Amino acid sequence: MDFKIKIPKTAVPWLVGAGVVTGGAVIGVVTLMNRSDPPSPVVENSIVLSILDEISIVKGERKQDVLILNPSDNSYDLMITMMDESGKILYQSDRMQPGTSASSITFSRVFREDETAVTVSYDCYEGEEIVESIQVETDLLQQ
Description:
Layout lengths: L1 E5 L7 E3 L3 E2 L2 E4 L3 E3 L13 E3 L4 E4 L5 E2 L3 E3 L6 E7 L5 E4 L7 E3 L2 E2 L10 E10 L2 E14 L1
C-alpha cells in the first residue's frame, strides 16, 4: 500500500496507524492527529518513522548536515529518498536497520535558490519487499 501525504507547513501532525510514538509515527491506515493527543503504545510489526517536516541546508553546498534516522521502534529496514519537483533523485540512503541514523548526507547537486521544497520518500522493507512507501512534501530552508 502506498501513501502520498502532504504535511501542513504550519505544524507537523503525527501520522498514525496503530499508535503514536515520540519523534515519529506508527503508520498503518494513515490518519492525522495533533501533537497534543496522548501517545499510544507501539505494537509488534509497526512502521515507526521520524518524518522530516523541514530540511535546513547551507546554500551552495552538496554535503549537508541533515539527520535521517530509522527509529529503533520500527520493525523494518528503511530507505530514504529525496527528490526535486521533477522527481529527479537528489539523495538516496542505503537501507538503514532500525536504530541507525546518518547525520551528514551528500546531494547529487547544489540546490537552486528558488527551490523551497523536496519530496521525501520513506520506503520500509521486509527482506527485499517494500512493505510501505510514504511520500511527504518537505520544506527546504536555504541559509
